[in-house]
């Protein structure tokens, strides 16, 4: 996996309890993470940018915006960083709700260092993976964008498993022309076999759907 | 016959007089009767005298017994009537006795200066009697003057007695003495001066008087026996009543330092039937914790008004405790010195037990309700507690990481340790508050500052309030006096009312979610505390029913909160009520007593 080196991933700590906030920042900094701490959800949202990378550790009960509300706000912002909930009192309905909302993890205070750092690593990896997938999708999209309309038509029929002859008949052209189109497609998409062609087409399809 | 009657009556009254107290009247009557008997003997003998010398000798004794008669009669009336003029009572027998001096000469001279002779006169059926002839002594009049004064004294005493209401006694005895002494005296006087030629018949008059006196005395005896029956009946009724009421009766003799008590009381206190009881061994039976208070109460009663009531415990040999309520009344002598304490005691163990059970149950239920209340806000409490614990653990990990490095940053480590210490103290403070809130305890009324109380409660619910986006405000006047209350129970009441308020505002816009605690001194003795919310309010029909146990308008509510609040407020001697505000929401108000020393 490749990372974009220009943006360092940051752990965003949001907790209304000063003492807890300080302890978390201290530990995560010692563990080698870049840390930013906020005392409330709105404070984080005020400086949240699309380019921010990393993850959020948020308390569930905070005035005036609780953890779940913060999670939803981040999701709406277009840059939904993974959220780890760290709560002093978590009940099952709340945790279910949080996990359904896409929470990365649900931890209870007091939390063991290993659990916390493990969760942070997983969240950062997920964020990085999201970032990599994003790059891959954009790369594939760029390659696909190089195809001519005719080539796209041919590609669709190739993926559907038609032979060159059948494609030529269907498009009302010579079989030799189709062979040229196929070679051009495989070059533009940097693939060497028809099987590979099918795989990256599927990959783009799935990345575009966000799965 | 008359002699026999006199002796019989005399013996009866002698017996009565010796056995009764006061028996003066009976003894005097007996003496009177014996004197009359002796007199009758002399009278009889005189009627049969054969010589002037014998006649004179007998006459002397007759006079002396007649004098005694006057003395005893006067004394009897004096004692029996309990009234009369003292001067007359002394003067009448005095004169008669003075007259008797004439009889103390070698030759008796009271009646006759000179006895000229005796004669025997026939009577019916051939019997004869003796009469004397002689020169009468004018000195004799002195004796009769004494007798006359006796009549005056008796008549006067009778009139007084009549006016006092003892009319029968005055009429019978006064009338009999007056009439028969006058009649008998006149007859004797006529015999003395020779006008009447008959023997002395005074004994019959005396007999009549004795009968009258005896009748009245025996009437007294009858009445006494009736009284005795009544007394017996009264005692019986009293025994029934004390038995039914489980009362023990006692009398404490302060002079002899002895306590008389009935069997019931002895059994109650654990004394044997015949055991001698004094104050010390009584106090020994008491529960050690009650001894000082009881002896203080007793001492105070002796020095003060004399009435007292007290409740104390008796430690029974089997280790059990018995509760006794005692009520006593001190009696003072003429000098105002206490001499006697009378009283009753009753076993109130069952009542006390019931009272204690009730208190115990109320405390149990209150405790249960506190656990429930704490359960409701336990999310907040766990949050409160886990914050410092979480920070401590994380800080510990940080220290560990620092120490693993080859050159640890000790300044940073010290800073982290300071944080750990602070968080540790914060956690223990929360636990302390929670434990205090949950402690099972009896009502402990202390002077409390309302502001402290309210601030502690706001702190207790602050996290919950923050989660529910509710502001809790305090509006307390600065000069509020201390109230008399139990810190934990009052906290419980306020937490309950705050949680209710927050529940009522769950659906309100966040901006409106505000609860205000206010307090005001409404009169010199009472502080009123109110908790107002801006919630949905209470349907008018529910306002009073909400205090009924297990009645609830909340889903999942136990319906105990307000019932407990009321029971706790009432245990403090206050009242609690709910009312809807004019605009919106509800106000709960309860009253507390101002701590006595703070009353203005």
Provide keyphrases for this structure.
heterodimer; A: 211 residues; 9 helices; elongated; B: 600 residues; alpha+beta; 5-stranded antiparallel sheet; 16 helices; 14 strands; 57% helix
Task: Give your account of this protein's structure.
- The complex is a heterodimer of chains A (211) and B (600).
- Chain A has 9 helices and 5 strands.
- Chain A is an alpha/beta fold.
- Chain A has a 5-stranded parallel sheet, with helices on both faces.
- In chain A, helix 5 packs across helix 9 and helix 6 crosses helix 8.
- The N terminus of chain A is likely disordered.
- Chain B has 600 residues and is α+β, with helices and mostly antiparallel strands.
- Helices cover 57% and strands 17% of the residues of chain B.
- The longest helix of chain B is centred in the middle third of the chain and has 43 residues.
- The mean pLDDT of chain B is 83.
- At the A-B interface, helix 1 of A face helix 12, helix 13 and helix 14 of B.
Unreliable stretches of chain A (pLDDT < 50, length at least 5) are 1-6
Oligomer: heterodimer
| pLDDT < 50 stretches of chain B | none
How many DSSP-defined strands of chain A? 5
Major sheet size, sense and barrel closure of chain B? 5 strands, antiparallel
Cross-sheet strand order for the largest sheet of chain B: 4-3-7-6-5
Query: What structural category do the secondary elements of chain A indicate?
Result: alpha/beta
| Overall body shape of chain A | elongated
Mean pLDDT of chain B: 83
Helix content of chain B: 55-70%
Distance between the terminal alpha carbons of chain A, to the nearest Å? 18 Å
- Give me the strand/helix succession of chain B: HHHHEEHHHEEHHHEEEHHHEHEEHEEHEE
Radius of gyration of chain A: 24 Å
